[in-house]
User: Fold this.
Amino acid sequence: KQWYQRRVRARGRLISRGQYDVVRRHVRCEGGELVPITIVGNRDVVDSQSSTIFVTYGCYGESLQLDYETLPHGLLSEGWKIVLCHVRGGGELGRDWYLQGVGSRKKTAILDTLSCINYCHNTSISAPSTSVLQSVSAGSLVAARVVQYHPGIISKLVLQLPFLDLSTALSHPHLPLTPEEREEWDDRECPVTMGTNNSLGCQVYITAGEHDRRAPIWHTANFVARLPVDGVWVHVVEGGEHGMDDVAHDMELEFIRQQERSWTLPTWI
Assistant:
């Protein structure tokens, strides 16, 4: 497949495939569809239970790539593995693959992600207590709904520059991206309106840009306001738009590494 990468670019340097194993599996999901996952890690951890970062997106027909700049490649050398969930709503398997996860079918992308994570847990590739679910921008809506549907399925949810408050965005036509979002999403899957006062069963770490116009900071604020106070951290990139600086990346990695339940950040909403 064109979207299958043999080399990984990790924060400015290339990692050859020989350094890590890259394994393809297929998971039977909603409707009997086989959804591919890509597992990357040291040879001795790819097929064994170890700390795992699941990555999902499932939006706009975009394909998850191993050289995706937001992936925490730096953790591979520390014994972690990364599992890319190539769910419907993405573009990995063509136009029809995208259409199966768009609009009123957006729930399919969410359920595909759930199935991929459960597959890895059930086959001892991962365990809930040592698993992280990560996404960025619009994919954060998919990731947030995953843990709302199944609290406790992972131990940490990490969202970068998240687009979360779908209902508010769709109700204000003057807001950026609204025409696109109306076609892409199903407002029944809004994490803000569907997750009021519910615990996600995991710690939550969010990076938001102070001046992000694509995913304004109120998406994060409205989502966090409906969560229990304990176990939720927000880092605001001062002056930031829709992008992560090195400090934000480093702080996110430190959060993922930490095993303790108590952790503090210098910047809060």
